[in-house]
């Protein structure tokens, strides 16, 4: 167990730039752009004689809000916090994609695999350490950074509103930062299960390809999808090709992006236009998102992911390019 812990630390040290600094820089840029937007709005408003919340008009408007209106304000604040994490999650998807592609290939490319094989570390431990790093370590770091950036976003909103004489702290109490943080962190195990086939496929390409694993990992599913669509176009079979694209091609490449399960998975978002503001964010609640555990699609993907990872371990044992 201690060996596995040090293997995880090795992965973090070697990928500190992508695991840690990529989310930090993304969150920082997002906050900076928001700050620049606020400053631009204030300057342009003053230049044209417009001032949001002048006098106590906005204060009276807030005081007159009923419970439904205040719920909408709280939802807007929650969305502002989630939006930062959404941007970081997008970057995380690319980080995991390229990390997995290079995880087993780079050792063979620079011949450092000979050094690692000389140590009392099994190939299974090596591959599993990279699997855990991609499915748990990197998402955990990214979400923690996203939560911190989201809290800073709320503080920025409070600061701007306080400049207009509004009791911003009262509004901030309408937000649910702890609930949002718990939902995001609690979704990590579910995302790990959902991403299993994609991570397994990328690790397999990284362990198997003698060169250019990116092309093999990306082009093979896409070319296969094109051929399936062509056969369908030629009338060689009457099965819909959309299933292949969404359940094979997108699962193999897009499942590494957090939230992809609610975009093209079995529990994709179906928001009722008549739902309340709070209900429209219900898909973020763990009680809702974990309904995915009852999806056959999820567990088939996990089984496929296990097979692909086992194949990656096998190629790691026999292929050192020496």
Task: Give a description of the structure.
- This protein has one domain (1-319).
- The mean pLDDT is 83.
- The protein has helices at residues 2-14, 16-47, 57-63, 67-103, 105-109, 113-118, 123-163, 168-172, 177-186, 188-208, 213-233, 242-254, 261-264, 277-280, 286-289, 296-318.
- The protein is an all-alpha fold and 322 residues long.
- It is globular, with a radius of gyration of 24 Å.
- This is ABC transporter, permease protein, putative.
- Keywords: Membrane, Transmembrane, Transmembrane helix.
- The chain crosses the membrane at residues 20-41, 84-106, 127-148, 154-173, 180-202, 214-231, 243-264, 298-315.
Calculate the terminal CA-CA distance, rounded to whole Å.
30 Å
Residue share in helices? over 70%
Strand tally, please? 0
Q: What average pLDDT do the residues reach? A: 83
Order of helices and strands: HHHHHHHHHHHHHHHH
Q: Beta-strand level of the residues, as a percent range?
A: under 5%
- Outline the low-pLDDT stretches: none
> Main β-sheet, in a few words?
none
Structure classification? mainly alpha
Radius of gyration: 24 Å
**How many domains comprise the coordinates?**
1
Count every helix, treating DSSP H or I runs of 4 or more residues as helices: 16
Oligomer: single chain
Envelope shape: globular
């Amino acid at each position: 167990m201690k060996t596995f812990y040090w293997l995880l630390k090795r992965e973090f040290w070697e990928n500190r730039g992508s695991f840690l600094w990529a989310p930090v820089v993304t969150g920082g840029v997002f906050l900076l752009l928001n700050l620049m937007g606020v400053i631009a709005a204030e300057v342009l408003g003053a230049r044209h004689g417009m001032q949001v919340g002048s006098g106590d008009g906005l204060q009276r408007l807030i005081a007159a809000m009923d419970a439904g209106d205040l719920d909408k304000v709280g939802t807007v604040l929650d969305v502002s916090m989630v939006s930062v994490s959404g941007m970081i999650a997008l970057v995380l998807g690319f980080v995991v994609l390229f990390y997995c592609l290079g995880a087993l290939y780079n050792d063979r490319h620079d011949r450092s695999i000979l050094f690692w094989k000389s140590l009392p570390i099994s190939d299974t431990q090596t591959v599993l350490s990279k699997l855990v790093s991609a499915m748990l370590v990197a998402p955990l770091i990214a979400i923690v950074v996203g939560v911190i950036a989201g809290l800073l976003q709320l503080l920025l909103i409070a600061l701007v509103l306080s400049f207009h004489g509004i009791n911003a702290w009262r509004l901030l109490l309408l937000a649910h930062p702890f609930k949002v943080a718990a939902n995001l962190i609690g979704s990590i195990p579910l995302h790990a299960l959902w991403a299993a086939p994609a991570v397994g496929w990328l690790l397999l390409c990284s362990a198997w390809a003698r060169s250019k694993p990116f092309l093999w990992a990306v082009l093979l599913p896409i070319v296969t999808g094109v051929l399936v669509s062509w056969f369908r176009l030629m009338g060689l079979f009457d099965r819909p090709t959309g299933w292949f694209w969404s359940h094979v091609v997108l699962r193999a490449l897009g499942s590494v992006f957090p939230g992809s399960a609610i975009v093209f998975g079995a529990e994709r978002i179906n928001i009722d236009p008549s739902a309340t503001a709070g209900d429209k964010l219900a898909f973020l609640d763990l009680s809702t998102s974990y309904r995915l555990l009852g999806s056959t699609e999820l567990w088939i993907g996990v089984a496929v992911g296990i097979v692909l990872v086992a194949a990656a371990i096998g190629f790691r044992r026999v292929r050192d390019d020496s």
